[in-house]
Amino acid sequence: MAPAHDPPSPASQEHAVAKPLVGPLSALDLARKIDAGGITPAGVVELCAEAIAAREPEVRAFAALDVARARARAEAAVAMLSAAPLRGLPVGVKDIFDTADLPTAYGSPVYAGHRPAADAALVSMLRRAGGLLLGKTVTTQFAFMDAGDTRNPHDPAHTPGGSSSGSAAAVAAGMLPVAIGTQTGGSVVRPGAYCGVAAYKPSYRMLPMVGCKCFSWSLDTAGLFAAGIIDVAFAAAALTGRDLRVDRVAPAAPRIGLARTHIWPEASPAMQAAVELAARRAQTAGATVVEIKLPPVFEDAFRAHAAIQDHEVHRALAYEYDTHRERLGPHLKAHLAAAVDITPEAYDDARRVAKRARHALADLMGEVDVLLTPSAPGAAPRGLESTGQSIFNRMWTLMGTPCINVPGVYDESGLPLGVQVVGRFGRDRAALEAALFVERAVAPASGA
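User: That's the sequence. What structure does it adopt?
Assistant: Structure tokens below.
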């Protein structure tokens, strides 16, 4: 294979610059301070409460909050929480996961005031791991494209992305050290990129979706947000009990495939420069970087994602569409109306295409450890009507592979530009380790 492209010209380099992360609370740093007795879980709740008081009126990241309950729990069970995997850290959960003690509206007026009888499986895992549920974070309506009220913490005139808008924005604004979201197209990686935080979409089915409002059962995947790669890996390890932490030893130099894909021209000059900057700096730091040309089946898979998603959502939201159509957002209502034309035959054909592409990707990943691609077409768009495009995420969601937004690069206006690391299915720790390598190569001050 040909080597990675030469560094971009000076004219394109000035579109992407590296600077250290600022603002978010480090989950790993807080856990270490709890271990050392430097702070208690209740003290961390107070840090979050102070940030919420200062930033929430502008950012609007929460659909429901219960700081008092989290504070009382932290004070009553300090010893137990401090010894638990998540150390009593406050966590926000996207408002499409059922919670027994907080309302769950799925971002829709159809379910305003809805109180589920039980927690979603992932929420129960969170509690068992010693996490404190601080609040429900804003989602777009039924996790689709009709935007909510959340603003980008870097500039409130810009979208935070979606559909996990509140989760990404709350972490970026320092209101939470950890938050949970979901991705069906690009709803974890893209808002992570727009808000400048680490975002981790695990391998498909690693995290349970029982008790989460379904959009597309073949694609919906739970994910995590935190300040940096070591933080999101720590949170994932604590939540799942898996060996996912990457902070204990220096990451090995990975073999990186620079994957421009057939939609590379859709990326802004700044985003293209950001990916090339990350590849160049990773190579300088010792990584092997090669140019990857994806076979034509991936273009077919890119198109197959829409057929699979839309055929399934027409069934997953059948009740809402049939009985509350007038209360659905305009984007969702139009999408569901169009989805009726996707035949079972077209759906089955799309699933076969996806299977062929997954086999092709497994063969391709025998030559590299991870792929490096854009996390989004560019920085967060101005305006709150759109949550941006998921074109650089959909195919990888369909593949079921771990995908991680690596923060640390900004455009010349100061808005974040995320680069995406795509790993092999089921090799999540290796993907997180490679993402940490890239993060430290791009912005060394962000590594711990």
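Residues 25 and 177 are 5 Å apart (CA to CA).
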